[in-house]
Automatic annotation (TrEMBL):
This is YjgP/YjgQ family permease. The chain crosses the membrane at residues 12-36, 52-78, 99-117, 375-395, 402-421, 433-451, 509-531, 543-563, 575-594, 634-656, 663-682, 702-720. It is found in: Cell membrane. The keyword Mitochondrion does not apply.
Length: 730
């Protein structure tokens, strides 16, 4: 192994192990908090608790490992770029792919190990932890009689209390007890009392329950059926009633007992394939049995099938106008009643079968999902590495600051997309194979995009290599800073001034969009709670969806404004933004916006070469024209994207509706409505900016009639205006 590969791998492994251990501790603590109710009050020894944590830990790997790879790769490659180590590599002819080669091999081996781990270790851990939790739940239930719900105590008692009080929770209020008899499996004895008290001696296996002021019901049937008509049940009032509950069996629970073995999360690939095949065969068998049952209910088999049609045609029988008229009125009523009852019962059977089939399909989907998630986890490790490594090289920041924020945002996006797809698959709304791979497939294009960007040494939000070919196809060719050259003594100062001014202008525009999106998201979130409290589920769902969408737009524009701001900082003597300020600004953006809005930035080149610059009218005209056209271009781009969203989404709504995916279609319709509002706002803003630009350079402004036509056919308006700008430059 070469020295460079060894150095990169060593640096990555140090960061990887550190991040993995920290995240493991965080997630284990979260697991303890999650299962604290199952462990508390059970008098468990340290060995059992440690065993529980030991079994739970492997099940956390699908969450911890992808986040560790993503965060480690961003931190390491961001640190390389920040400390100019990549610049040194490039100067010696080493590309980004060559620098990533040793880590790519390591990540490949790690993905292979992850696959075997998810196929063997995680199912074993699920099996052990599930059975241990099940056994712990049976241990000493008298210690944890929960309020407001039925609690099973042993095999015979089912108790519910409204309220517990006292130092040890021994005083009970409003008690209901269902008790099974020794010779019957169902509840035939019910006791209701206003108050009660739990009494038991230390180290005793008998729990004494003393009840006050209540009733005792017993509906155990007598031997003679005639007696049951006279006395259907027994009811007894009591002032004090004492019952003893035997806890000897409950306090001798074997925590190592393994009873559940066939849960889908406990199976490896071979077992899952076998289970899926068995479930499919079982479903076919159930459907065949159901079809036979429905067929037999028609009583077709009871008809005489030996009678030929010719023999019936030879009979000289007058054809009745109505089949029922052949029978007597009494028989007619019986026939109709029988037909209605048969139809009702058959319909009920079919509805129940539909529910049963849905349950079977969902259970089958869970097995398919568990099978493909084992492969998807291994693939996610590789793809998230190719997201994190180039992203770190692009943002050029190491450490635990900005990389941590970006990694968490990306991982939460990946995780919640996967969670949404998984829940949809379990409910039958999405194919389980697609659901298992959905979040990974979403990240795959991003990994390709970022890797190509980092290789070409381009910024994240620079799309000139994509936009320029499209402009040539559409006949649009507007070049930056090509509107009459300014007359300056120092060309370097002129270039620095215009470049810095452009970056600052782009940052300001993105800040404004971020402020609008942030405010809209908060307003929609407030509306969500208002609609939810007023029991308007449809409106509350729409509000929270739009709030999430606007917050995503806010996050994107916030990051874009930061990128332009950092580019501006490099061209000036302004200090960079600290991580604390960055996080504070992201959470409370309006305050950060006000600070940015009213702070006067000065460009370092202008400070250093102030005596060499000649600010004549031509320079002012050039920069003003550039600023107006940039503002128009940004608004027009947003309007153009928003224009096409409803055109694409509205037909998709009807397609989804026809395929019985109304919820997904309705969400798309809401998105198109939101996009339409955004389109109108930014289309009008773009028209306002282009009018100012035309007025500034002496061209005719757009009329009201042309504005109406522009709103209807905006792409044509966009193309024509860019053509006019191109001609005006010539």
């Amino acid at each position: 192994m070469k020295i460079l590969d060894r150095y990169i791998l060593k640096t990555f492994l140090k960061t990887f192990i550190s991040v993995f251990v920290i995240l493991m501790l965080i997630f284990v603590l979260q697991a303890i908090w999650l299962y604290i109710k199952e462990l508390a009050g059970k008098d468990l020894d340290i060995a059992t608790v440690l065993k529980f944590l030991f079994y739970i830990t492997p099940t956390l790997i699908p969450l911890i490992l992808p986040l560790t790879i993503l965060l480690s790769s961003i931190m390491v490659f961001g640190s390389f770029a920040e400390n100019y180590e990549f610049a040194a590599m490039k100067s010696t002819g080493i590309s980004l792919q060559r620098a990533m080669m040793s880590l790519s091999i390591f990540i490949g081996f790690l993905a292979l190990i992850t696959f075997f781990f998810s196929n063997n270790v995680i199912p074993w851990a699920e099996y052990e932890s599930y059975n241990l939790r099940k056994n712990i739940a049976k241990l000493k239930p008298a210690m944890v009689i929960a309020e407001g719900q039925f609690n099973n105590i042993g095999d015979d008692f089912n108790i519910k209390v409204e309220e517990k009080s006292g130092e040890n929770g021994q005083f009970l209020k409003n008690i209901i007890i269902h008790q099974k008899t020794s010779n019957r499996s169902t509840n035939h004895k019910t006791t209701i009392a206003k108050n009660g008290e739990l009494l038991s001696a230390e180290d005793s296996n008998i729990l004494k329950l003393v009840l006050f002021d209540g009733y005792y019901y017993d509906d155990t049937p007598p031997k003679n059926p005639m007696e049951r008509r006279k006395y259907p049940f027994t009811k007894t009032y009591f002032k004090k009633y004492v019952t003893n509950i035997d806890l000897s069996q409950l306090n001798n629970i074997d925590l190592d007992d393994k009873q559940t073995t066939d849960k889908y999360s406990m199976l490896n690939i071979l077992d899952l394939n076998y289970a899926i095949d068995s479930l499919k065969k079982q479903r076919i068998k159930h459907n065949e049995e159901f079809s036979q049952t429905v067929f037999k209910r028609t009583n077709v088999e009871s008809l005489n099938q030996n009678i030929s049609i010719d023999s019936l045609n030879n009979l000289n029988i007058k054809k009745p106008s109505n089949l029922l008229s052949v029978f007597e009125p009494k028989k007619q009523v019986q026939i109709l009643d029988y037909a209605i009852n048969t139809l009702t019962s058959t319909t009920s059977i079919i509805e129940n079968k539909k529910l049963f089939n849905t349950g079977e399909q969902n259970y089958l989907n869970k097995h398919g999902l568990a099978l493909h998630k084992k492969f998807a986890l291994a693939a996610a490790c590789i793809i998230l590495f190719f997201v994190g490594a180039p992203l770190g090289a692009l943002i050029r920041k190491g450490g635990m600051g900005l990389p941590l924020v970006i990694a968490i945002v990306l991982f939460l996006t990946y995780h919640f997309i996967g969670l949404f797809a998984e829940n949809s698959a379990k409910s039958g709304s999405l194919n389980p194979v697609l659901a298992a791979w959905f979040s990974t497939l979403i990240m795959f294009p991003l990994s390709i995009f970022l890797t190509r960007r980092a290789t070409a040494d381009r910024g994240i939000f620079e799309f000139d290599h994509i936009i320029e070919p499209i402009k040539k196809k559409l006949g649009i060719s507007f070049k930056k800073n090509n509107i009459s050259k300014p007359l300056l003594k120092n060309e370097l100062d002129k270039e620095a001034y215009i470049k810095a001014k452009s970056k600052y202008s782009n940052s300001t525009v993105n800040c404004k969009i971020a402020l609008i999106s942030y405010s809209s998201s908060l307003i929609l979130l407030l509306l969500y709670f208002i609609f939810k409290n007023n029991e308007l589920p449809a409106l509350s769902l729409s509000s929270i969806q739009l709030s999430a969408l606007t917050f995503i737009i806010y996050t994107i524009t916030f990051v874009k404004s930061l990128v332009f701001r950092n580019q501006y900082v490099k061209l000036s003597k302004e200090t960079s933004i600290s991580i604390i300020t960055l996080l504070f600004g992201y959470l409370i953006f309006p305050l950060a916006y006000l600070k940015l809005r009213y702070t006067k930035y000065q460009i370092s080149e202008l400070r250093e070469h102030k005596e060499t610059l000649v600010f004549n009218k031509e320079l002012i005209k050039t920069t003003k024209a550039i600023k107006l056209f940039k503002a128009y271009n940004i608004s027009a781009t947003i309007a153009l994207v928003s224009y096409f969203i409803p055109i694409i989404v509205v037909p998709a709504y009807f397609i989804l509706k026809n395929n019985k995916l109304e919820a997904l279609g309705f969400s798309g319709l809401q998105l198109s409505l939101f996009a339409l509002i955004v389109y109108i706002i930014f289309a009008l803003k773009s028209i306002q900016y282009i009018n100012k630009y035309f007025k500034y350079i002496g061209l005719k402004e757009i009329t009201s009639f042309e504005i109406i036509l522009a709103l209807i056919a905006y792409p044509y308006f966009y193309k024509v205006n860019n053509k006019i700008v191109e001609n005006s430059q010539k």
